[in-house]
Amino acid sequence: MGNRPSKISKLSKLSSKLKKKSSMSNSTSSSTTLSTLSDHNEPLFKFENGRRYIDDDTVQYLLPNDDDEIDRLQMQHYLLRYIWQSNFSAPVKEILRCGAKVLDVGCGPGTWTLEMASDYSRSHFIGIDIAPIFPAEIKPINTEFRLQNITNPLPFDDNSFDYIHMRLMLAVLREEEWKSVVLPELFRILKPGGYIESHEFDFRIVNQGPCMKKLVEGFIQFCKAKNMNPIVCPNIPGYLQENGFIEVNVSKNSGHYGSSAGRFGKLALEDFILVFDALKTPISSILEINEVEYQALLDKLQEEVDANDTFYEVYRFIGKKFDPDD
Ligand SMILES: C[S@@+](CC[C@H](N)C(=O)[O-])C[C@H]1O[C@@H](n2cnc3c(N)ncnc32)[C@H](O)[C@@H]1O
Asked: According to the UniProt record, where is the region Disordered (predicted)?
């Protein structure tokens, strides 16, 4: 762990180059640390193996929420935006231009929320997350952030949002929570005619070499032990339909790891390595290897993804709430 700060600052530089290369406009910094506790007095955090986590036994989230993780989430945002060349796919551009009410569920540091708020100044954006890693004070006037456990009933009226966005919840929600807790609640607060959009990563990574395969298998076992399904993408369209969403639409895109994909590939692999570095203790224990052997798996990944042309797929799922007046 001793080398993490230099790794992160290297990533921040690469990430800001990638950000410039992307054609989208953007108003937030990739490397700014946004964490603050100034508005919150609760004893929120616990520390394990030098990383910071939410101190709440009812929260299953697998990853930390410290400054290094905030940097990683911001970099990941730019990777995803680069892959899709956009921040969303739902047909909501026009209502966003005119003035819509938007919810970002599990918003993290709020990178997506802040960019969208800057692009659509007539719309109002609310980001909710269990961790206060979003900006508390310095934010656009059309943006607010709230601390909220998304597996609890949400403090919003029925039929009150035009558009709901939710990204990378695979290590957040148990399978049952997707189906029976979170999506029903999001359906309740979405206006008739409104859209929901969920973005997910597919852990069925294509052309995995042996080291990646071992790490991914460990991750899958870790998730399953917590009743989470990291291969949730095939199930999401069904979850949306079961909860009453109509016109369910699925789109898929991909990103390559490694040298063949230039700067993107380097950052995508760094993102993977940072996630698995954060999960070193539980996954090495599941794989019954020591941390030196685990580190050796991570160290071999660059060579392995180059040799195998490894790539991953990401999905966007869209659903609409029926409007009797349509
Ligand atoms: C992988 S991050 C994704 C963040 C953001 N959506 C993005 O794409 O950058 C998952 C987020 O879910 C949040 N989270 C985890 N459990 C949660 C819960 N029960 N309620 C609300 N947020 C939660 C974490 O704090 C983290 O910010």
From this structure: 1-37
Two structure tokens written together for 301: 């990944």
Across residues 3-21, what is the average pLDDT? 39
More confident: 42 or 171:
171
User: 235 is in which domain, residue-wise?
Assistant: 4-320
CA 184 to chain centroid = 20
Question: Is residue 107 in contact with ligand 1, taking CB distance under 6 Å?
Answer: yes
Residue 26 has pLDDT above 60, yes or no: no
For the cut 80, the answer to whether the pLDDT of residue 244 exceeds it is: yes
Task: Report the atom number in ligand 1 closest to the C-alpha of 166.
Answer: 6
**Does some domain include residue 325?**
no
Categorize the per-residue pLDDT at 42 as very low, low, confident or very high, splitting at 50, 70 and 90: low
Give domain status of residue 187, yes or no: yes
Give the span between the Cα atoms of 312 and 203, in whole angstroms: 7
75 Cβ below 6 A of ligand 1: no
Using the structure block, give the residue that is written with the tokens 């905030």. Answer: 70
Task: Give the pLDDT mean for 44-55.
Answer: 91
What's the whole-model pTM score? 0.89
Best residue for ligand 1 mutational test, from 68, 79, 168 (most atoms within 8 Å of Cβ): 168
Rounded to an integer, the average pLDDT of 30-56 is: 63
Q: Is residue 160 part of a domain?
A: yes
Q: Where are the beta strands (DSSP E) in the chain?
A: 45-48, 51-54, 101-105, 124-129, 143-147, 161-167, 190-206, 246-256, 311-320
What is the CATH number for 119? 3.40.50.150
Total number of domains in the chain = 1
